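Record type: monomer structure entry
Structure origin: computed from sequence
Chain ID: A
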Amino acid sequence: MRMTNLCAAALAMVMTMTAAIAQAALPDFAPLAAKCGPAVVNINTERTTRGAGPEEFFGEMFRNMPPGFDRFFEPFGGVPGRGQRAPRKQKSLGSGFIISSDGYIVTNNHVVAGADVIRVTLDEAGGKGRNLTATLVGTDEDTDIALLKISSKEELPFLKFGNSDELKVGEWLLAIGNPFGLDHSVTSGILSAKNRNIHSGPFDNFLQTDASINPGNSGGPLLNMAGEVVGINTAIIASGQGIGFAIPSNMASLIVEQLKSGKKVSRGWIGVAIQDVDETAAKALGMERAAGALVGDVMPGQPAAQAGLEEGDIIVSVDGQDIEDSSALLRAIAAKKPKSTVELGVWRNGKIMTMNVVLGERQSAQSEASVSGEGNDQATLGISVRPLADNERRELKLNRKEGLLVVDVDASKPASEADIRPGDVITKANGKPVATVEDLGKIVKGEGVKRGAVMLQILRRGDTFFRPVPLPQK
């Protein structure tokens, strides 16, 4: 009996010590909230839109009626829903934070987009807020960042940007914002992941956190334990819990500095179409590891073409920084200034070479072309192809040694799994031009089967890219 009591006492002591250790390991967020809270602001906007009432529904019903139909409604004042509708005020809520004592404020572009009036509420002692009208200094839609300015007679509290690159997964973070209009709500969590691409824009590189973020938190700061802004809370997954996303401070601070100086946000540009290198592509190209950005097209006259980059090159580094995928290349180049020179590490024909490229300014261009037809069978890949006619090659600006039109794709074969589609034009296989069924068959049955994959260069509706197709090995 005595032994049982001793065991119970020992167990209780261990549990008490474990609880004390766990409690000691948890950070105290109170000083951080008190220090940083006054620099966080609530943002509410107003914009005027044309009002929509019950007549809007009927207007949609009658919108596509044939000519002359309107006259039946003339005695009743016309077709319901047509004509001018009364304007109405639309309001939205968000968050932001002050970054300088003279009143510059950072928030999300989507918080203030299209606003006629932007009002900022400052946090003051006693829980009372002071309302000020803000001026929009500038925005960057690609990164969803906006810069505002308010005027105040006294110096304002402000926050500084920290280094988001130094963050470690599992590190404690604090979010302050205005969720659902509940001003200056504080939530805590950890850094769940870095470099998240949620496909919301061309430069996605989000921090993921499990700190509670809700509608209204947008534009608010994500803070490290030193009270530095390491992220701007921007997005959530509506169907999930504990999954929020923030723009990294190192990306945001570069954009903010350009907006603050009154300049248009400018980004570097090399003029290539790129895609990721997956395991199959790496195998087809003889690479040891799937990494880098595969160049699918080099735009004539653009910096990459002038520097000598070619279709099929794989960009593996920028100024010594490793490039893991196409998104990383976009961000690395966009962070450089136009007219600056960058050194690219390029994988070509099994070797890495360096190329210096003088950057242009980011732009976009699209072109379209379409083809159709019927043809022969290439059984190994599971596609039917035929050579292009001379007039088709001229329309697509291809030479006589390039161009096989994909007529049909067997849904059960490798080509279908690799997203090869009818209407695609195969211009090269493993970097070699193909103009006949025999050209393609020789490459597929030779080095393709030997390597276990073949890399097809595809032209689709004016865009050039690569599709690696896995093959059974001998």
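Annotation 1: Residues 51-77, 364-377 have pLDDT under 50 and may be disordered.
Annotation 2: Residues 268-361 form a domain with the Pdz3 Domain fold (CATH 2.30.42.10).
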